[in-house]
Design goal:
Blueprint (H helix, E strand, L loop, with lengths): L9 H15 L7 E4 L3 H9 L9 E4 L2 H9 L7 H4 L2 E6 L3 E2 L5 E2 L6 H9 L1 E9 L13 E5 L4 H10 L3 E4 L10 E6 L6 H9 L4 E4 L1 E2 L6 E5 L5 E5 L4
Parallel strand pairs: 1-2, 1-3, 3-6, 6-12
Antiparallel strand pairs: 4-5, 5-11, 7-9, 7-10, 8-9, 12-13
Helix pairs in contact: 1-2
The protein binds ribulose-5-phosphate.
The site of ribulose-5-phosphate has 19 residues, from α2 and α5.
């Protein structure tokens, strides 16, 4: 979730930093590192200059992340130059016990899903506010749509049971628009991910039920961080 400075909560920020530290420890002797987008990932990027010898270059999921990486002195490459990635680290807006995610409140969902899918290992870093028993009880689902098809795709989403709201005055790095969808029936997240993707004009949805992470670092109220391994591994 993108935050304004007044929304910053010290305990949550400390948690994000701890979760990021968990993932930083995994960056060892690899070539290509994918880097997600958001306030939790910022802490991860802060730690990268100290371990630069452990990876060759990074691929960014957004222009914002690319700028932060360059500022930190990290070499940034394009996915077309690297081939598949060794590791992808990103935040999430919500996750459930089956490691299914909702992402995209920072608007980078399409590139994020591409990088997660192009990576051998996908690791999520989050504070405990992102943990839900059911995705249906969590947050709105961002859906990236072609501007040309915004109203059409919104009507199709209403037919699926969702209540889309246009994220006005916002364009993704791909030049597209976002609909934030409440009340989508999410008892079958992977089915809903496929249904959304099959609407002409939808570029991508923020439901990650197919490419789910192998590992989630989640920081709670205490000074610990939990390392959750994907249940089927
Ligand atoms: C951006 C994302 C972010 O990973 C998600 O919004 C979490 O961000 P934050 O770490 O700021 O809560 O999906 O598109």
């Amino acid at each position: 979730m993108t935050q304004s400075p007044e929304e910053v909560h010290p305990a949550a920020e400390a948690g994000k930093r701890r979760a990021a530290e968990g993932a930083l420890a995994l960056v060892r002797d690899i070539r290509f590192l994918g880097v997600g987008t958001g306030s939790t990932v910022r802490y991860f990027i802060e730690g990268l200059p100290g371990i630069q010898q452990h990876f060759e270059a990074a691929v960014a999921s957004s222009e914002q992340t690319a700028a932060l990486l360059r500022q930190a002195g990290i070499r940034v490459l394009d996915l077309n130059e690297t081939g598949d990635l060794d590791l992808y680290v990103d935040g999430a807006d919500a996750f459930d016990p089956h490691f299914r995610l909702i992402k995209g409140h920072g608007g980078a969902l399409t590139r994020e899903k591409i990088l997660a899918t192009a990576s051998r290992k996908f690791v999520v870093i989050a504070d405990s506010r992102k943990r839900f028993n059911r995705l249906a009880d969590s947050v709105a689902v961002p859906v990236e749509v072609l501007p040309f098809a915004r109203s059409f795709t919104a009507r199709q989403i209403v037919r699926l049971g969702g209540a889309p709201a246009w994220r006005e005055h916002y364009l993704t790095d791909g030049g597209n628009q976002i609909l934030d969808v409440l009340h989508l029936p999410l008892n079958d997240p992977s089915g809903m991910e496929i249904q959304l993707k099959s609407i002409p004009g939808v570029v991508e949805s923020g439901i990650f039920a197919h490419r789910i992470p192998e590992l989630i670092f989640v920081a709670g109220g205490s000074s610990t961080v939990e390392r959750l391994e994907r249940p089927d591994l």
